[in-house]
Amino acid sequence: MTPAPDGTPCWVPDDGGPALSPLPAVTGETGADVTVVGAGLAGLSTAYHLAHRAPGLHIAVVDAGHPGAGASGRGTGLLGPRAGPAVDVAVRRYGPATARRMYQASLRAVADVLDLCDRLGVRRGVRPGEQLVATRSPGGLIALTRQADAYRALGLDVPVLTRTALRRRLEPPYTAALLYRDAATLDPAALTRALATACAAKGVHLYGASPLREVRAGRPGGTRLVFPHGTVRTGQAVLAVGAAAAAGAPVGTVLPLQVYAIATAPLPPAARKALGGGALSVVDAMPLAPYFRLLPDGGLVAGGGTVTHLPDPDARHADRARGRAWAWLAGWVRGLHPELAGVPVTHRWAGRIGHTLDGLPVVGPVPGRPGVWYVGGCCGHGLAMSVAHGAHLAGELLGEGCPEPGGPLPWHRSRAPRLPLPAPARPLLRAALATAGRAARRNC
Predict the structure, then answer these.
(1) How far apart are CA 237 and CA 250, in angstroms?
(2) How far is Cα 49 from Cα 390, in angstroms, rounded to an integer?
């Protein structure tokens, strides 16, 4: 089997061709009632729910590339509950009642994604299963113990698996794990493409190859979105651009972090059985540490272990960073089971996530820009939560208010904490991330 070119996710069709017909760019001047900038899961979910609930609305979705070109098409397909910081941290910051609501919202998000896949006919790779947050290190065990105590105090069903119970599920020598029963794995690019197709079928106007240049205040009740070859006059705008705080929108600091993944050829049967044999996904409890899951074709996807801050992914050091991250991941995967030593890596890719200092997304109106909303900063939990954020924003844009039981959650806000990042400080940030990555790799 010939390895795919570096940078190709395993979700790309085998023929290498586009999954969707090329989209027209924004040219000249056009108008819309609502314009969504960003054709990832959050943006397309917003447009989909808007079109479903208000069929007469003129909706446009504009992407710098094409649907799923960013993080939504480059994830690793782990669909699990949890959003924001660890549950014990959430209890300390926001109180038990809010921490419980945060977790319950993440559970609903998983169920909603699976329901959406069913409605859109997304079958490829969708497999309900379990997710383990596991550890082999003393530090990870301490973190899991704190989280288990918090889940128990909140009355939430997240049991602890001891070493003996873990051995019934997989062979790698993890010492303990939290078991999340309501999880799944899927092909994230297939879901993104299906959402784009469904939006088009509902009359949403889709544009590609149009990076946003500027957001200008228009006439009362309107905004002008400026693209390289045209503008869109819009009543309301949603900036669903992930780690890119579009056109300098004052939404606090959403760090663009580069994360890395690999996929392998099909595993030998013994190795596949040893690693769970199905839709099980395993995430290490240490921050930044690696994780893996099995694919329906018998291969394995792994990610984590390294994260870098690369404002310009084409910077001189980017190639070296990618090479080191992929090489370490490949070695880690081969250490999971003896029979993996000869299994080739077929895909290696990188993608960006948006990370905030407090671990919470930003889903709210942009300060000082009436009618403009921002969604981003899912901190690595974007597969389920991005879809949920889209449904939430659709309700807000239609004047229906917050649909969450009990009212807004902590991520329904206009700003993340700010971290000034002048150019001289960026090497310090990179050094801190490198140190954290080394600690995670030593303890996995």
Answers:
(1) 15
(2) 7
| Helix H or strand E segment including 112 | helix 96-120
How far is it, in rounded angstroms, from Cα 198 to Cα 207? 15
pLDDT per position as a tens digit, 233-245? 999 999 998 766 5
Cβ neighbours, 10 Å, residue 268: 15
**What DSSP letter does each residue of 272-324 carry, written as one string?**
HHHTTSSS-EEEESSTT--EEEE-TTS-EEEEEEEEEE-SSTTSTTHHHHHHH
Handedness of CA 68, 22, 19, 395 (dihedral sign): positive
58: helix, strand or coil: coil
Q: State mean pLDDT over 182-189.
A: 94
Q: Residue 223: name the closest of 213, 235, 231 by CA.
A: 235
> Is 68:192 a contact under the CB 8 Å cutoff?
yes
Strand partners, 31: 233
DSSP letter for each residue of 147-215: HHHHHHHHT----EEEHHHHHTT--S---EEEEEEEEEE--HHHHHHHHHHHHHHTT-EEE-S----EE
Predicted pLDDT at 312: 54
Amino acid at 228: P
Render pLDDT for 293-306 as a digit per residue (tens, 0 to 9).
999 999 999 999 88
DSSP per-residue letters across 223-243? EEEEETTEEEEEEEEEE--TT
Task: Select from 341, 429, 372, 398 the least CA-distant residue to 232.
Answer: 372
Q: Which helix (H) or strand (E) holds 46?
A: helix 41-53
Over residues 391-413, the pLDDT tens digits come to 999 999 999 877 777 889 999 99
Residue 33 host element (H or E): strand 28-37
Q: Is residue 322 a contact partner of residue 347, using CB atoms and an 8 Å limit?
A: no
Structure tokens belonging to residue 122: 């997304």
Confirm if 170 and 280 have CB atoms less than 8 A apart: yes
For the chain, the maximum distance between any two Cα atoms, rounded to a whole number of angstroms, is 66
Q: What is the DSSP letter of 221?
A: T
